[in-house]
Automatic annotation (TrEMBL):
<comment type="pathway">
    <text>Cofactor biosynthesis; (R)-pantothenate biosynthesis; (R)-pantoate from 3-methyl-2-oxobutanoate: step 1/2.</text>
</comment>
<feature type="binding site">
    <location>
        <position position="45"/>
    </location>
    <ligand>
        <name>Mg(2+)</name>
    </ligand>
</feature>
<keyword id="KW-0479">Metal-binding</keyword>
<feature type="binding site">
    <location>
        <begin position="45"/>
        <end position="46"/>
    </location>
    <ligand>
        <name>3-methyl-2-oxobutanoate</name>
    </ligand>
</feature>
<comment type="similarity">
    <text>Belongs to the PanB family.</text>
</comment>
<keyword id="KW-0460">Magnesium</keyword>
<feature type="binding site">
    <location>
        <position position="114"/>
    </location>
    <ligand>
        <name>3-methyl-2-oxobutanoate</name>
    </ligand>
</feature>
<dbReference type="GO" id="GO:0008168">
    <property type="term" value="F:methyltransferase activity"/>
</dbReference>
<dbReference type="InterPro" id="IPR015813">
    <property type="entry name" value="Pyrv/PenolPyrv_kinase-like_dom"/>
</dbReference>
<feature type="binding site">
    <location>
        <position position="84"/>
    </location>
    <ligand>
        <name>3-methyl-2-oxobutanoate</name>
    </ligand>
</feature>
<comment type="subunit">
    <text>Homodecamer; pentamer of dimers.</text>
</comment>
<dbReference type="GO" id="GO:0000287">
    <property type="term" value="F:magnesium ion binding"/>
</dbReference>
<dbReference type="GO" id="GO:0032259">
    <property type="term" value="P:methylation"/>
</dbReference>
<feature type="binding site">
    <location>
        <position position="116"/>
    </location>
    <ligand>
        <name>Mg(2+)</name>
    </ligand>
</feature>
<dbReference type="GO" id="GO:0015940">
    <property type="term" value="P:pantothenate biosynthetic process"/>
</dbReference>
<dbReference type="Pfam" id="PF02548">
    <property type="entry name" value="Pantoate_transf"/>
</dbReference>
<keyword id="KW-0808">Transferase</keyword>
């Protein structure tokens, strides 16, 4: 079982095989998704919303991204692990961007980093790539720009913004990105960009014509059944399953039926037939 690399992903695009990507924030989910066949695990700054309970991804810090990246890497054997660069970790200067990208690789153990933005970040991307750190771009609905966009709204619906997104995508490839996430754009535009680029384009809310798809793991697992934007499909209803399991546990604790005999330990006692021996043999009841 060979590990997935950025070169593997390029070969999948060239062969017309879809790339499967999902977010992960800890070792347990990373192991499960890896065993299920994920090609890419994204340690997303979405951790700020689905794990930490924030209204946006903006409060997430570099230290937190390093911590979660390290956990995901420990649980992964095959998938390629990408770490998100959080808000203000690459916007201030090129030097700071390279330093923070290096932290995700050295301290977090990821195989590449992802950052949001178009042509204006081409130099940043180029410098990070020059430091031998692969970069995945992110265009369209970019959550770190939520205030600038005026909310989480679909991008590229008019001719001018669509043309800019195409130009941005070309610029990111030329700057050295090995792949691009395209989020919240019309499927027709996503198809144009996917066909125009030689690097893999991973879609989320961008239709079926991208080279692959990514979803937030908590969304696809149905851990929050009340959150279901148009592009999300629940492949399970684990939120309800978790509540049912926890409710059953609480009921048994309150009724005194848990723990029962099968889930309890006893004081060790001598095996009767061995009692006269100098060396006692003990048996623990099942």
């Amino acid at each position: 079982m060979k590990p997935v690399t950025i070169h593997t992903l390029k070969k999948l695009k060239d062969a017309g095989q879809k790339i499967c990507m999902v977010t992960a924030y800890d070792a347990t989910f990373a192991r499960l998704f890896d065993e299920a066949g994920a090609d890419v695990l994204l340690v997303g700054d979405s951790v700020g919303m689905v794990v930490q309970g924030h209204e946006s991804t903006l409060p997430v810090t570099m230290d937190q991204m390093v911590y979660h990246s390290r956990a995901v890497v420990r649980g992964t054997k095959r998938a390629h692990v990408v770490g998100d660069m959080p808000f203000m970790s690459y916007q201030n200067s090129v030097e700071e961007a390279v330093r923070n990208a290096g932290r995700l690789v050295v301290e977090g153990g990821v195989g590449s980093v992802k950052l949001e933005g178009g042509q204006e970040f081409a130099e940043v991307i180029s410098r990070i790539v020059r430091a031998s750190i692969p970069v995945m771009g992110h265009l369209g609905l970019t959550p770190q720009s939520v205030h600038k966009m005026g909310g989480y709204v679909v991008q590229g619906r008019d001719e001018d913004t669509a043309r800019k997104l195409v130009a941005d995508a070309v610029a990111l490839e030329q700057a050295g990105c090995y792949s691009i996430v395209l989020e919240g754009v019309p499927m027709e535009l996503a198809r144009t960009i996917t066909e125009k680029l030689s690097i893999p384009v991973i879609g989320i809310g961008a239709g079926k014509h991208c080279d692959g798809q990514v979803l937030v793991s908590y969304d696809l697992l149905g851990l929050n059944p009340h959150f279901k934007p148009k592009f999300v499909k629940h492949y399970a209803t684990l939120g309800e399953s978790v509540k049912e399991a926890a409710g059953s546990y609480f009921d048994e604790v309150r009724s005194g039926s848990f723990p029962d005999e099968a889930h309890s330990f006893h004081t060790m006692r001598l095996v009767p037939e061995q009692r006269e021996e100098k060396t006692a043999v003990y048996s623990v009841p099942v």
